[in-house]
């Protein structure tokens, strides 16, 4: 591949071959000496994030390979135009325009360049780091540049990677919707009549989306402790929960008033992150009729810092949960493998440091794909913008408590205790607990594609006098 | 007032007297020759907006007096520092910092300067234009500067005035909530148990907020036409509606995790606009269970372009609808006149040009004030940001159909026709209809404070094949 690229005319207007597949596998080997091939940030990944580090505290774009973070601003600033054109051939834009996006404090500008550019950049990075790199002089044999642009991951601070205009959370996790429905309405009426006809969703809060590692303060709220009295109290939530979700970032805007077709929807996705949509179940259950969740959700949502490019997940496509309903035309996909086979895990680590993996699920347990969510979201002409975040909704598996994506389900609304290593029990989260989501697909041989960690530790509520 | 200001030491750190009331009335007279004293943009108003005009197409901050738009970028750029300090004494910030905000393409930077600055600027503008201006040399006697910075309102283009991070729509219009509740659940269960305990709200869509004058395309959506069949169709909405609301812009952020007290909440409000939260009732009724409105709302919301400063509404405070429930401490206000007496009207103008005022209501018909909404919204630590928009929810009066703020209520869900001038009938909106909201308070003598128009014309849906 690399050789043929080099043989092409080095014009920035060359388009890559239509037969070139973005998920073409490179061998999972690199010249980078610290690399361990079982890393989730393998040669098959190259996610993007926003970092700052002590050398240059201004935010910039970076990628990660193994445990090494590569500062793309420093890297590309050090290279001349002809070198950049060899590394990233056929962009269709100037390399100056590409490189300018690496100096931004969010990935929005880079995202807007479109998936054609993202493909070429990801392949260029793979070519740069592969064991048989066709460009040894750029970085492999340039130890000065390596020292300038490569940082161990412990040396950098990760930031929220995109400026999030709007955040929409869907409810596409079929088993979650079913389990919760059974709890509230029994098995015969578990799912609402609309559930299999459209991807139900609601608008979340963009301002409270934080990056992994940010502490989460236990929210205060109105709670109906005594269901009979109908008189709420104002207290810290007693039912603080997590939700295991996959999040998708939008890459480019659609014009207001113009729906995105299901065929085009894939091109509107930039990449994916893990998403923990923290929830206060007692606040939510009192407030949510008739307009939906509000204070029970909008105090915080945590995302993993590295955006896994949509192309990196292409080899892991699989079929979603079967929907037997005859769905409307605008939601019908020709791509039947419309979801991803990503193994998801959730840990609780107690204040004492005991960690328990309490849930294992998979991102394939969705009834609606992200392209379907996009087609539905824009059916009415609603404008999406670069950096908008779509959440899948909580993803639970079909099995028992240990396959579920929230404590609400695992504890059956607080009725059943969950045992943790070290002997602790939980129904909902305690102050001092840390919740960590992880998501990985692929093998060591081909190179794992993982998301890193999405974690948050619960802090005690603010001091409060109820009356 | 002006004289005493001039006598003060001209330091930027001077604070205005605590006894100075922001809503101190100036006489409703100006030296501006075109001014008509019955204008809603009177000497008592001075709202702010973002404009562009052919002389200088870049967006900038402006105000309006009568029909004349004053470009604050051009005005303040033409003045030297000592003149600016005389005009705006006691800012507590440098005049350079103030003036920089007038060159921004949104009001966010200006809003973040805080209400102390907003007060001084509004008073400075009143002093500059009053008939007995203490600063005749700055503008009254400077016809060159007048020509440079004053434009007739027909010469400027108005833009969305703020970068809106998050948009929250409440449901505080008591009579609307009650009317709609009666339609769906009968009079005994019209209001949900939580309604009188907390200001119910939900997250809206920020990306589809447009400025008055923007055409609104009829949205396509899933509709359950045949309630028995339980099989939806995908069609242009048949029940397109408006909602008459008041919107409040947030002026400064609170820190994530830190609630805003009800005492402090007023200081978080920058100003107010009219808000038409367009709604597709048939899409909404099929989709909204269990997570609330989505595609039935997020295709468009229209706001009036001029932000009426919170201080300009101070003389029009009145009491909200009485809430007999004992509310939680964090929602109890010492300011009993917590809402505004703004007369609201809604017109429909048909494609043929016939205009009918179909509804008259008042912004005082709220059960929850904006400070209560802010205290509730942030109770759980949810961070607000400068430029966030809060909607009141639809505001209906206690009387008949002609006092209601939506066609849903006026037509009783489509059962009753509304007669228009020219003989047309409506249950919901037709293509070609223009909906115009207006809101005004005050008298010609004291100076009216109005919002201008908030209007949108309905365009036909995109071409669509259902199957």
UniProtKB/TrEMBL annotation, chains A, B:
Q: Name one GO biological process term.
A: homogentisate catabolic process
Binding positions (Mg(2+)): 277, 297, 301
What cofactor does its activity depend on? Mg(2+); Ca(2+)
Entry superkingdom: Eukaryota
- Keyword Cytoplasm (UniProt): no
Question: Which pathway, per its entry?
Answer: Amino-acid degradation; L-phenylalanine degradation; acetoacetate and fumarate from L-phenylalanine: step 6/6
Which residues belong to any copy of the Fumarylacetoacetase-like C-terminal domain? Answer: 183-458
Chain sites annotated for binding Ca(2+)? 169, 243, 245, 277
Q: Where in this chain does the record put each Fumarylacetoacetase N-terminal domain?
A: 44-161
Reaction catalysed by this chain?
4-fumarylacetoacetate + H2O = acetoacetate + fumarate + H(+)
Tell me the residue numbers annotated for binding substrate.
Answer: 171, 185, 284, 288, 394
State the active site.
176
Q: What is its EC number?
A: 3.7.1.2
GO-annotated molecular function: fumarylacetoacetase activity; metal ion binding
Entry keyword set: Calcium, Hydrolase, Magnesium, Metal-binding, Phenylalanine catabolism, Tyrosine catabolism
**NCBIfam families noted in UniProt:** fum_ac_acetase
Q: Which family does it belong to?
A: Belongs to the FAH family.
Question: Matching PANTHER family, A to Z?
Answer: FUMARYLACETOACETASE
Kindly provide the name given to this protein in its UniProt entry.
Answer: Fumarylacetoacetase
Task: Name its species.
Answer: Podospora fimiseda
Q: What is the lineage of its organism?
A: Eukaryota, Fungi, Dikarya, Ascomycota, Pezizomycotina
């Amino acid at each position: 591949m690399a050789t043929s690229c080099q043989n092409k005319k080095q014009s920035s207007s060359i388009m890559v071959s239509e037969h070139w597949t973005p998920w073409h596998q490179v061998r999972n080997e690199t010249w980078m000496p610290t690399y361990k091939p079982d890393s989730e940030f393998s040669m098959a990944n190259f996610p993007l994030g926003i970092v700052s580090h002590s050398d240059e505290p201004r935010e910039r774009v970076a990628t990660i390979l193994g445990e090494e973070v590569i500062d793309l601003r420093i890297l590309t600033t050090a290279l001349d135009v002809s070198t950049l054109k060899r590394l990233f051939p056929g962009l269709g834009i100037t390399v100056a325009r590409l490189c300018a996006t690496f100096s931004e404090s969010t990935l929005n500008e880079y995202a807007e360049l479109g998936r054609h550019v993202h493909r070429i950049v990801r392949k260029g990075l793979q070519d740069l780091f592969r064991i048989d790199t066709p460009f040894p002089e750029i970085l492999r044999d340039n130890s000065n540049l390596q020292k300038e642009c490569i940082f161990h991951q412990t040396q950098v601070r990760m930031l929220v990677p995109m400026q999030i205009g709007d955040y929409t959370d869907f409810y596409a996790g079929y088993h979650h919707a079913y389990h919760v429905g059974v709890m509230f309405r029994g098995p015969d009426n578990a799912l609402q009549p609309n559930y299999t006809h459209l991807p139900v969703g609601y608008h979340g809060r963009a301002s409270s989306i934080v990056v992994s590692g940010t502490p989460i303060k236990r929210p205060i709220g109105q709670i109906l402790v005594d269901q009979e009295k109908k008189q709420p109290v104002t207290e810290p939530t007693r039912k603080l929960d997590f939700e295991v979700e996959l999040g998708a970032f939008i890459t480019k805007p659609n014009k207001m008033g113009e729906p995105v077709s299901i065929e085009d929807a894939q091109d509107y996705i930039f990449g994916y992150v893990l998403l923990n949509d923290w929830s206060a179940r007692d606040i939510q259950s009192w407030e949510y009729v008739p307009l939906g969740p509000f204070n029970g959700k909008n105090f915080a949502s945590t995302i993993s810092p590295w955006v896994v490019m949509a192309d990196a997940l292409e080899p892991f496509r699989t079929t979603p949960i079967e929907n037997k309903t005859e769905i409307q035309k605008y939601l019908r996909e020709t791509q039947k493998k419309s979801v991803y086979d990503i193994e998801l895990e959730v840990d609780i680590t107690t204040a004492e440091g005991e960690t328990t993996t309490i849930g294992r699920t998979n991102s394939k347990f969705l009834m609606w794909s992200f392209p379907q969510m996009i087609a539905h979201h824009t059916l009415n002409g609603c404008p999406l913008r670069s950096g908008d975040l779509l959440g899948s909704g909580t993803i639970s598996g079909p099995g028992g408590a240990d396959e579920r994506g929230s404590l609400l389900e695992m504890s059956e609304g607080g009725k059943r205790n969950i045992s943790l290593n070290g002997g602790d029990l939980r129904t909902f989260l305690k102050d001092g607990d840390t919740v960590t989501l992880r998501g990985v697909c692929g093998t060591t041989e081909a190179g794992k594609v993982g998301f890193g960690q999405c974690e948050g530790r619960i802090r005690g509520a603010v001091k409060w006098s109820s009356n």
